[in-house]
Amino acid sequence: MRRFVTYAASLFAASSLSAAAFAQPAPAAPAPQAVHPAYPQSPRAPQGAPNILLVLLDDAGFATSSAFGGKARTPNLERFAAEGVRYNQFNTTAICSPTRAALLTGRNHHQVGFGNLMDIPAGFDGYNTVWKAQTASIARVLQINGYSTAAFGKWHNTPRWETSAAGPFNHWPTGLGFDHFYGFMSGTDDQWEPHLYNDTTQVPNPATPEQGYHLTKDLVGKAVAWVDDHEVLAGNRPYFLYFATGAVHMPHNVAPEWIAKNKGRFDEGWDSYREQAFARQKQLGVIPLMPN
Questions:
Q1: Three-state DSSP class for residue 189
Q2: For the whole model, what pTM was predicted?
Q3: Catalytic residue among 36, 109, 110, 156
Q4: What are the residues facing 54 on neighbouring strands?
Q5: 16-32 pLDDT per residue, tens
Q6: Catalytic residue at 110?
Q7: Scanning 18, 113, 125, 210, which has its CA 20 to 30 A from the CA of 73?
Q8: How many CA atoms lie within 13 A of 48 on its CB side?
Q9: SS3 240
Q10: Which is catalytic among the residues 96, 171, 180, 214?
Q11: How many CA atoms lie less than 13 Å away from 111 in the CB half-sphere?
């Protein structure tokens, strides 16, 4: 009994001490701090980054444009050349899809998967027409560095079995770095009644040939409208615009007034044209003069 009383007294004393300890004043609450909203920051291009316009003319020879000694009058290209630089040393793959793959990546076309045309893929690496993820397009590189990007016109770099409303769309322009695409997916198309896509959705032609519709005029109008909208809504961002006409690739659907402007200019034939263009290119300095 004496042991029990002693033990109970010890418990009572311990509980009393614990209660006293718990009765100590609570520490002062920390002063409230201002909370600022934090939104993810979009990538921003470097200060002063230029807008970039890349124009690709299909199947146009080196001596076609008057800017490079040809007979086809291109006064605006002449003006750009006079204010900038004309290049006369370059590599060409000579056919469509490979040229575009190389141009839009800066890689050898085999590295991208386009050793041949999109229309005739082969089951070998470098020839399967499947754009490789590790060969990013210029558009993708610029996009992740704060650029707006858009492509207008001919594409011709998506595997045939993926060119439909069912997708997949990761090898379409909008899956390869372009924010927006308006144009056609195949290698050739009717310039009067093309098969048009807006991003990944097929859309009807805005007008008929009888109403004055022509693909090139439509592409120019859409591209200018995109630039206008961009300047109003995102003028603080630079843009990259890739413009690839269907002309001058076949089919040669040319308006009568354009045919009339050039009537008779090319009647002398290939051999004569070559000699004349060669002489003009030497005068322009496009063909470097060899030292004596």
A1: coil
A2: 0.85
A3: 156
A4: 242
A5: 445 555 566 777 777 88
A6: no
A7: 210
A8: 0
A9: strand
A10: 96
A11: 11
